């Protein structure tokens, strides 16, 4: 794909060489993300960061990624403080905000809304999550993390990957985008573990099968996570249910803790989660007793989000080759934390 000036709305836009390109640029962002070097390549550029649904990681890491490239961030959070609450259309909001920004990231509760917004925008728009539909930057950082974790184990190839996805696979947009992304690889085994009512949408299962992948569906976790490289846990997406009582039917159904991991998983199985994990006792999908497990990759995964989002900005705004020019070492104290 041509990155420069493009919207990033869906994983379907990418082919395998595009993914390699994103990962290669993400690797090159490490000195900046890790606070060893400073670049001002986006000096003067403005990101419109518009989040109409709760977010911590995605919003802040998109903002940090832009700041780390030297740009400025303007933010709107929630409908209440936005003119959308006064009845403004997505079309008008897009026309106006794209006059104030060089690139826009948007999260919105309605599937397809970010694409609708992008159609009216005069600048590139990135989908930070549209309802239960897609979350492309999360899928990219997830696969980037999988690749890094496997490389750490001495495996260089994503072909032949075995992954279990656990939890709310119906409404979880991160797993929808991740499955679409895995379709670009070969010979993947995907174990889908969910209550029957919350299984992966059939169209996505079909896409995986058409890509030649092995898809196994189950509603029990123990036993189903025994032969996987990656156990990818997800939260029950309560905000997509009719009410709390409906979400309560499924909350806490799958709980991974150290004892279950030891009993079921291979010693190197990597544990992932897009976060936030729901740590309330009635849910607790990933127990805190996994925090010292070296295969718990959830915080490395969140750190990787900055690298991947920096790469997307650098590619879309066409500055990849300029990032290292005009860069310098940091001149403040930076404890080693990566
Ligand atoms: C996810 C999301 O918003 O889709 N979070 C994230 O962006 N890292 C997953 C979730 O909220 O459960």
TrEMBL record:
Coiled coil region boundaries: none
Q: Tell me the ranges covered by the Aspartate/ornithine carbamoyltransferase Asp/Orn-binding domain, including all copies.
A: 159-315
Report the protein name in the record.
Answer: Aspartate carbamoyltransferase
Q: Where is the Aspartate/ornithine carbamoyltransferase carbamoyl-P binding domain?
A: 7-147
Where is carbamoyl phosphate annotated to bind? 57-58, 107, 135, 138, 275-276
* A Pfam family matched in the record: OTCace
| Gene Ontology molecular function, alphabetical | aspartate carbamoyltransferase activity
Family, similarity comment: Belongs to the aspartate/ornithine carbamoyltransferase superfamily. ATCase family.
Quote the pathway field.
Pyrimidine metabolism; UMP biosynthesis via de novo pathway; (S)-dihydroorotate from bicarbonate: step 2/3
Q: Which residues are the signal sequence here? A: none
């Amino acid at each position: 794909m041509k990155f420069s000036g493009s919207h990033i709305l869906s994983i379907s836009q990418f082919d395998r060489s595009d993914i390699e390109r994103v990962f290669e640029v993400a690797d090159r962002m490490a000195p900046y993300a890790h606070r060893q070097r400073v670049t001002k390549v986006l000096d003067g550029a403005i990101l419109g960061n518009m989040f109409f649904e709760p977010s911590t990681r995605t919003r802040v890491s998109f903002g940090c990624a832009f700041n780390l490239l030297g740009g400025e961030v303007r933010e709107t959070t929630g409908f209440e403080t936005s003119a959308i609450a006064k009845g403004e259309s997505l079309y008008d909001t897009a026309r106006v905000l794209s006059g104030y920004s060089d690139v826009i990231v948007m999260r919105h509760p309605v599937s397809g809304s970010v694409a609708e917004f992008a159609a009216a925008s005069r600048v590139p728009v990135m989908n930070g999550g549209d309802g239960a539909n897609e979350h492309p930057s999360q899928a990219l950082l997830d696969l980037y993390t999988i690749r890094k974790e496997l490389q750490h184990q001495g495996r260089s190839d994503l072909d032949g990957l075995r992954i279990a996805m656990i939890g709310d696979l119906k409404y979880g947009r991160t797993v929808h985008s991740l499955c679409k992304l895995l379709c670009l690889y070969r010979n993947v085994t995907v174990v889908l573990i969910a209550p029957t009512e919350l299984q992966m949408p059939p169209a996505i299962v079909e896409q995986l099968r058409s890509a030649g992948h092995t898809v196994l569906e189950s509603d029990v976790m123990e036993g189903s996570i025994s032969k996987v490289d990656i156990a990818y846990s997800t939260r029950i997406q309560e905000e997509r249910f009719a009410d709390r009582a409906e979400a309560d039917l499924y909350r806490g159904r799958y709980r991974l803790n150290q004892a279950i991991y030891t009993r079921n998983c291979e010693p190197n199985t990597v544990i992932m989660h897009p976060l936030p994990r729901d740590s309330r006792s009635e849910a607790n999908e990933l127990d805190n007793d996994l925090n010292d497990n070296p295969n718990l990759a959830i915080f490395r995964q969140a750190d990787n989000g900055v690298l991947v989002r920096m790469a997307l900005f650098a590619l879309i705004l066409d500055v990849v080759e300029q990032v290292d020019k005009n860069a310098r070492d940091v001149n403040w104290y930076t404890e080693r934390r990566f």
